[in-house]
Amino acid sequence: MKKTLGIILIIIGFCLTVVVKIGPSKETSWVFGYGDLPPMFLAAALIIPGLVLYNKNR
Fold this sequence. Notes:
Layout: H1 2-22, H2 37-56
Helix pairs in contact: 1-2
């Protein structure tokens, strides 16, 4: 279960990073309310624990 949770966190963080790199559109403009930096920190906050959970339970 922890391995699956790690994979889910990694996928969500990666998708958020892709949205930030593509840039704002009409559908994703709410993500960029405070600029690019907060979504990147949020993506890192999701990817790093996901990698830790995945590697511990591999």
